[in-house]
Automatic annotation (TrEMBL):
Name the record gives this protein: Beta-monoglucosyldiacylglycerol synthase
Reaction it catalyzes: a 1,2-diacyl-sn-glycerol + UDP-alpha-D-glucose = a 1,2-diacyl-3-O-(beta-D-glucopyranosyl)-sn-glycerol + UDP + H(+)
Highest taxon, organism lineage: Bacteria
Localisation per UniProt entry: Membrane
Length: 853
């Protein structure tokens, strides 16, 4: 539909003139790297028979030979002297032009002294007048200078010193839409003719670029270039205009000058001297569209087939959704690569292209993974490995050893945790409290004493110096576990468990291959203030969506509270890893590598405490993200190749796909830094540095919109939350973006950062300013992004869609940083009531089943 052939007037057999610069790839007149005489002669031979004349801009080097060489092939020449800020060079150019024009009087028909010199502000009108008058005195042919039409209107006295009006008519630079461009030129031509009735108006440059950024309503493309020129030439012949088409050949060197990237693409022929569009046949916007469509379809089919591997329970609507995403993504990728390939390859474009390819591949992979979770969460049956509660006689239930690691925890909180454990409705269990490295006896002694009051099956241990952080404490407890205990359960020191926790979950261990049974993390202090209500909204999504989907392929993330592990398997795989700061998730992956099974229930059986402020909220997520990189590095071989591991492809997929969004955050941090650097160049070099290609700017916007849409839809459908709660979750999640990105990058360049324990009940309202400054990094980056967008708007406005979309990209990029500042402020204001975020109406423990569960 978009590539229907368009009939336009045919190109004349011979046009009046071409603007001619003989530079080829590798040439650069600014650096005085010029083509050879034979190369110039070859260009003129190519143009002979297609035009009456050529216009040249300088007489430097081999360009001084152009009139002589043009005479051999029957071409006339409008000779030009380049006028700039250097008076000595200006004098040399004018002297040379006069000499060459005299020596080649047979075919030099006009002389133009200066090209847009007044527009660039490099000399004054008075100085230019003196050069013009000298040329007029010494030559018998017409003399003028070349400027855009509006410069002649602004400086009418300049016309008193020329023999004709040489004007540039380039509607692209003025943002004129293609359909209005020819009429625009006619109108401006008539304006000049009315203002200077005794002067011939010569259109010294007229053209349209085949590539470049959109300016206002003007779109640069080969089809638009062909359409404009063929329409203009037909009208120019009818109106008997004198004109020079801008220009004969593409000039790659112009990408580095004040015209920006678009300067390289004004040629009718490309840099390899091949025509860029059809001269007489119908014009097709993208001639290769059939090939591109076939490639898009092929890529989309491959992506779709990969997405539905092992998705037998996915409903038809889910498959249709994945097919749509696969086809949209494939089409976008092919379109982007095609658009980018239309550029001339330089070192900078190749470098940007490589980085773009890597980033684009990452975005597509993340989008497909997110789409897969979206489809399975909404349209999957979720029945392959559903958690089914079993009634088992007491004498058949395994003995459980409950391990409670603690470090410097408030004794009153610990006592509440132990009291809840004492109320467990379970026939055989023990509780081992392992307090490691707490220095103050006033903290751990009350807990030790309370354990004695609860009976012999509560054991308390304290070690003043124990390595390994939480993993070290758990290994210490494992070594002191009762011989008859076959299941090890772990809870954090702040958790108050449900009396039926063990009774409901341990029967799963009667299946021989089950090694892990996991209940969700849940929290009881969400009504304490606004900050914790928002944090709670953010936590819930993973346990209500991600873990449920992962359970279908036996690929849950083991987290270090509310988890149960078969003791024999735990000891067989080497217990808890003391080198990893997320020892829980690492242990789960090691157990899966042995071919064991894990089961997850989304029902809550225990509630703990959330971080008290944004500082601790960030540190907790930093630990989780950094630990994931440790796990990836350690288990990379098992995740990517079969080897001796028993990991299924579904498990590999979910572990890698689960980390992808965090990896995307780290790449996004690099993108943000690059965007700020690019914007800085745009601000300080507005004439040479354009906004990124529109189609590239759309990628991060599309990615952001997709993620937000997924979050809102899934959160509403699967977490049973209101719009306000969904937005609260979004703000809290976005606020962690910078922290996660840093953690992932640190994980790549370091190996072992220290374990950070999340303190509980440690908030202090007197620490307002400390809590507020916890987002100082995010505040600085956010301000930089907003300031960049504002400066670009002040400089360029919203006239160009490329500029407008780039400014929107900067605003979108600032969103996570603004969210972090907001969370920092909310966390510092502990008195803000949670009712500002509506109460969670359906806690995990009581959430009704959906039809897919």
């Amino acid at each position: 539909m978009l590539n229907k052939p368009e009939n336009e007037p045919p190109w004349p057999k011979r046009i009046q003139g071409f603007s001619f610069s003989p530079m080829r790839p590798g040439n650069d007149p600014v650096k005085h790297i010029l083509p050879t005489e034979s190369e110039v002669e070859a260009d003129l031979k190519l143009l002979s028979g297609r035009t009456n004349a050529v216009r040249v801009y300088s007489v430097e080097g081999v360009q001084a030979k152009i009139p002589e060489l043009a005479a051999k092939v029957g071409l006339n020449v409008t000779l030009g002297a380049w006028i700039g800020p250097d008076p000595v060079e200006n004098e040399r150019q004018v002297t040379e032009v006069i000499r060459i024009a005299r020596e080649n009087y047979q075919n030099v028909i006009r002389v133009i002294i200066g090209n847009e010199s007044i527009l660039r502000g490099e000399i004054t009108v008075k100085e230019l007048d003196s050069y013009l008058e000298r040329a007029q005195r010494e030559l018998t042919i017409p003399v003028s200078t070349a400027e855009p039409w509006h410069v002649w209107i602004q400086h009418p006295d300049l016309a008193d010193h020329v023999d004709f009006i040489a004007t540039h008519m380039l509607p692209y630079w003025e943002g004129v839409p293609l359909d209005n461009a020819v009429d625009y030129i006619i109108d401006r031509y008539n304006t000049l003719a009315r203002n200077f009735p005794d002067k011939l108006v010569v259109i010294g440059e007229v053209g349209w670029p085949s590539n470049g950024r959109k300016r206002g309503g003007a779109v640069a493309s080969p089809a638009n270039q062909a359409t404009f020129l063929r329409r203009f030439l037909a009208k120019a012949e009818e109106l008997e205009y004198v004109y020079y088409v801008m220009e004969a050949f593409d000039q790659i060197w112009k990408q580095k000058n004040t015209e920006g990237a678009v300067g390289a693409y004004w040629g009718v022929y490309d840099a390899n001297r091949q025509p860029k569009f059809p001269f007489t046949s119908p014009i097709v916007s993208i001639p290769e569209w059939q090939t591109l469509a076939a490639v898009s379809v092929a890529i989309a089919i491959i992506c779709f087939m990969l997405l539905v591997v092992d998705s037998k329970t996915l409903k038809l609507r889910g498959r249709g959704f994945l097919a749509s995403i696969a086809f949209i993504a494939a089409t976008g990728v092919v379109w982007i690569f095609y658009s980018y390939s239309r550029q001339y390859l330089t070192f900078s474009t190749i470098l940007v292209g490589i980085l773009m390819s890597i980033g684009l591949l990452g975005v597509v992979i993340v989008v497909l993974a997110e789409a897969h979770e979206w489809a399975e969460a909404i349209w999957g049956s979720m029945q392959r490995r559903a958690f089914v509660k079993q009634e088992v006689p007491d004498d058949e239930l395994p003995m459980v050893s409950v391990h409670v690691p603690a470090y410097n925890e408030p004794p009153e909180m610990m006592i509440e945790t132990l009291n809840a454990l004492a109320r467990l409705d379970y026939p055989r269990f023990e509780v081992i409290v392992m307090d490691n490295n707490t220095k103050d006896p006033e903290v751990w002694r009350p807990v030790e004493a309370h354990c004695r009051t609860l009976g012999p099956h509560f054991k308390f241990f304290h070690e003043g110096q124990l390595a390994g952080f939480k993993a070290g404490a758990l290994n210490y407890a494992l070594a002191r576990t009762a011989d008859e205990a076959t299941v090890v359960a772990v809870i954090d020191s702040d958790y108050q468990v449900d009396p039926y926790w063990l009774r409901d979950l341990t029967p799963q261990f009667l299946k021989e291959n089950v090694a892990i049974v996991q209940a969700p993390q849940d929290y009881r202090d969400d009504k304490e203030n606004l900050f914790k209500a928002m944090c709670y909204a953010e936590y819930r999504a993973f346990f209500s969506i991600g873990m449920v989907v992962r359970n279908e392929r036996n690929a849950i993330i083991q987290h270090g509270t509310m988890t149960m592990v078969r003791r024999s398997v735990l000891e067989e795989v080497g217990a808890w890893a003391e080198w990893c700061i997320t020892e829980d998730a690492e242990l789960g992956l090691r157990i899966f590598e042995q071919g064991c099974e894990a089961y997850y229930t989304s029902k809550s059986y225990g509630k703990g405490l959330m971080p008290d402020n944004f500082v601790d909220f960030k540190k907790q997520r930093f630990r989780w993200a950094y630990g994931s990189v440790q796990i990836m590095r350690y288990h990379l071989g098992e995740l990517l190749r079969k080897g001796e591991t028993k990991l299924t492809w579904g498990q590999r997929y979910h572990f890698v796909a689960g980390w992808l969004p965090w990896m995307a955050d780290s790449i996004n941090l690099i993108f943000t830094a690059s965007a700020l650097l690019w914007s800085t160049y745009m601000i300080y070099l507005p004439l040479t540095v354009d906004a990124p290609m529109l189609i590239l700017s759309v990628v991060p916007l599309t990615f952001f919109i997709f993620k937000v849409a997924k979050m809102i839809y899934l959160y509403h459908r699967r977490v049973d939350s209101s719009v306000v709660q969904t937005m609260a979750s979004a703000v809290a999640g976005l606020a962690l973006t910078h922290t996660i990105a840093k953690a992932m990058l640190y994980g790549v360049i370091t190996k072992n950062l220290p374990f950070f324990r999340t303190p509980k009940k440690a908030a202090d309202s007197s620490e307002f300013w400390y809590a507020l400054q916890s987002a100082r990094e995010e505040a600085l980056v956010g301000i930089a992004l907003l300031l960049a967008a504002w400066c670009l708007y002040q400089q360029h406005g919203a006239s160009s869609s490329d500029q407008l979309v780039w400014m929107i990209v900067l605003l979108v990029q600032s969103t996570p940083y603004v969210a972090a500042v907001a969370m920092s402020f909310i966390g510092a204001c502990a008195q803000l009531p949670e009712k500002l975020v509506e109460s969670i109406t359906s806690p995990l423990a009581d959430r009704p089943k959906t039809e897919n569960e």
